[in-house]
Amino acid sequence: MAEGVGSFRMVSEEEQTLRAQLQQLTTKDHGPVFGRCSQLPRHTLQKAKDELNEREEAREEAVRALRALVQVQAASGEEVAQAVADRVQGRDDAFFLRFIRARKFNVGRAYELLRGYVHFRLQYPELLDSLSLEAVRCTIEAGYPGVLSSRDKYGRVVMLFNIENWHSEEITFDEILQAYCFILEKLLENEETQINGFCIVENFKGFTMQQAAGLRASDLRKMVDMLQDSFPARFKAIHFIHQPWYFTTTYNVVRPFLKSKLLQRVFVHGDDLSGFFQEIDETILPADFGGTLPKYDGKVVAEQLFGPRVQDENTAL
Questions:
Q1: Which of 93, 171, 179, 242 has the CB geometry, 3.0–4.6 Å to 205, for a possible disulfide?
Q2: Helix or strand or coil: residue 26?
Q3: Quick check: pTM over 0.85?
């Protein structure tokens, strides 16, 4: 009987070292959140290799294959496929690589994500068409949502939402989603973020019954659609903290919309934050999220995203 033949690859000492390093990372081992990534850390390149099936020599071919698939699908005449081809016209290779990374170098699945990205924009034009950058900036300055200036120990971007002082009469749910979409587009220009993904922390301390009653199922569905298959982003965890008992009613509206993969990444902590702090280091969190830093200031983040505000030259002396 013929002897079975197997295959194996020798793992280099460098790879072993990098994989060991990935198990012991701290918040200081990653690059900046804002701006483009000048050079990926070696341990992040190893993570991309292990988790996303990324190989330097395969990037160019994968992008070519995705571009070709866009044209093949558009030739079918199907409406969304044609919209995809129109939307990506003139886009550079880096844009396509985001979708390929988000789907672990499976070109077919990357195309489906690209369809989802375009379909979301067609389905909810109010979130992305004719945006007022000044209005988006004001929403971000108010802290809806927030973004930490340091990555967590896994290299993820941490986004924050503090519901206590939110009044829908002042800032609408759509305006908050517009700000989320703007931030995601901006931060996904960074390759380190494409690989490591995002973590969202929702602080429901002070969440009132009036706020709960004002949340429409259609708005919550829109939010879930944003998080699922509509951006080339890896949403690795969603943490809820300090939620009151009636939060369950709101969560039960959202839960049926969540796919199993995202559902497994939702963590509801209540007031016991011991498990939460094992994931998110207190030293990078602001005081209003249980951390050791000063209270969150959205104006600082808005300046990182938009640049400094121009001072009014007509200031009275």
A1: 242
A2: coil
A3: yes
Contact of 96 with 64, CB cutoff 8 Å: no
**How far is 202 from 204, CA to CA, in rounded Å?**
6
Gyration radius (Cα) of the chain, Å: 21
- CA 211 to chain centroid, in Å, comes to 25
Ranges of H-type helices in the chain? 13-22, 42-52, 56-74, 79-88, 93-102, 107-123, 125-128, 133-141, 173-187, 191-196, 209-214, 217-227, 247-254, 260-263, 274-279, 298-306
pLDDT in tens, 73-119: 999 999 999 999 999 999 999 999 999 999 999 999 999 999 999 99
Q: The tokens of 72 are what?
A: 């093949």
Q: What is the pLDDT of residues 155-181, one digit of tens each?
A: 999 999 999 888 888 999 999 999 999
Residues 71-75: contacts with CB under 8 Å, at least 24 apart: 73/111
Taking a C-beta distance cutoff of 8 angstroms, is the pair 187, 33 a contact?
Answer: yes
